Amino acid sequence: MELLKESDGRLGCPSSLIESAGPLLTGRATLHHLGxxxxxxxxxxxxxxxxxxxxxxxxxxxxxxxQVRVAFFKPFDKRNPxxxxxxxxxxxxxxxxxxxxxxxxHHICYEIDGLESVLEAARATDFFIVSTPKPAMAFGGRRxxxxxxxxxxxxxxxxxERK
Length: 163
What we know:
- This protein is mainly beta.
- Helices cover 14% and strands 36% of the residues.
- Strands 1, 2, 3, 4, 5, 6, 7, 8 and 9 form a nine-stranded mixed β-sheet that branches.
- The longest helix has 10 residues.
- The chain is globular.
């Protein structure tokens, strides 16, 4: 079994797994943020920021297309991930049902190149497309899509800004 070298960014992974690795290898995926669902952002934001050693700018963004409000928490140490708190904007919000079962990690967001090619790769590995591409207010209109893996991990794919 050949292990890939550090220079290729996949240290310690058997090369045979690359073919079945799913959509993250398509589109140069990089971790963008971790999304956590809460009933309401405002009452928990300051303590949440302190608990993860992060800074919150006080901004809560309403996205009527996603039917949520979101806030981002940037880590003091840039080696750590950004967190997003997500609250339902209405009873019809997709996260309302999630809240009835639990509060906590909801999704992992990856920033990617070429949203369509990543969704093709997701379909080819039997991932379920939860939501097709649409613009997101929190990202200045950049498109996002939602995908669920075979192991029920919800992933948000954020199209990288074109330079």
